Amino acid sequence: MNSHIVIPVLISFAISLILGPVVIPFLRKLKMGQTEREEGVKEHLKKAGTPTMGGFIFIIPCIITVILLLLTNKMQYSINLFIILFVLISYAMIGFLDDYISLKHHENKGLTQMQKLFLQFVVALVFYVLFRHFGDGDSVLRVTLFNLEWNLNWFYGVFILFLLIGTSNAVNLTDGLDGLSGGLSAIAFLSYGLIAWNSKWITGYQDIGIFCFILVGCLMGFLVFNSHPAKVFMGDTGSLSLGATLATVAILTSHEFSLAVIGGVFVIETLSVIIQIFSVVVFKKRVFLMTPIHHHFERLGWSEGDIVKLFWIAGFILSLLALIYGVWL
Q: What is the distance between the alpha carbons of residues 266 and 181, in angstroms, rounded to a whole number?
């Protein structure tokens, strides 16, 4: 088991480290620099011009590593593995289009919400067809702790769409500080890797676990360049892809509800935005100094590094709690 986990992590980590110094100057040459808005946190204005679309630094190594392991029979192909790769690549392309349009017009406006929703709907529809008609997935939501089951039938497709959109946008909202979203995603995928490895009732269970460990290695390599002070940002290319892939793994491992705990920090970040909007619209008052909530801590005078470390620790603790249920209960 150790070699099955360690080797993929080392390979993907090494490829990310090699790819980073190639991709970053290339993005800088193409002038793919982040545009910072003046109404944001003032300390972030100095980050203007930092290359974005850095998600390719972990997406490309992830795909390369999977292909290498498949060709050398270190991984076995399964329909579930195909679904994960399909979602990873599809959402990366949606994010890429959003980033490219935004940078082309030199403002933080990429795809419209309707355009994003349509593309995400298409991905969710393909996901559902593959999952229900070519895989061994069903339309049942389970809470094993309370022995509860709900058969959603066709509505499960809507649930898949909701989970993909919700998680991808949550990770995207969290991607506001150097290393924050990347580190939390690495913790989350490590947790799901351990859950998948232990879930022998899932088709291709070991290979879903190995995929998660591969992505952890890729993210560790990416964090070398994304930790404060960041030399590159993942952009929507990376954040949308990570969120959707995380939701996909949760669905395929039948641990959808665990996602709310494993991705608890992402949930809190999203809730802070919803609460702020609701409060401003209804009560004409702000609950937070600025949202997402990591910016609230910045406005309180916390350093960027301290906020990231606090959120990483919170994500790690929540993941440990989810693992107690997901693996041992």
A: 9
CA dihedral 185, 186, 191, 192 (to 10 degrees): 70
Q: What percentage of the chain exceeds 90 in pLDDT?
A: 62
* pTM for the structure as a whole: 0.93
pLDDT given for residue 40 in this prediction: 57
What is d(CA 293, CA 268) in angstroms, rounded to the nearest whole number?
Answer: 8
Q: What are the tokens at 263?
A: 């991705």
pLDDT at 41 over 80: no
Which residues, other chains included, contact 219 with Cβ-Cβ below 8 Å and sequence gap of 6+? 16, 58, 182, 183, 185, 186, 189
Q: How far is CA 158 from CA 124, 140, 173, 250, in A?
A: 8, 13, 22, 16
Q: How far apart are CA 151 and CA 169, in angstroms?
A: 26
List the Cα angle 27/8/175 in 5-degree steps. 40
Distance, CA of 242 to CA of 186 (rounded, Å)? 10
> How buried is 148 (Cβ within 10 angstroms: 0-12 exposed, 13-18 middle, 19+ buried)?
exposed
Q: What is the dihedral sign for C-alpha 253, 258, 263, 267? A: positive
The whole-angstrom separation of Cα 171 and Cα 120 is: 15
Q: How does residue 104 score in pLDDT terms, banded at 50, 70 and 90?
A: confident
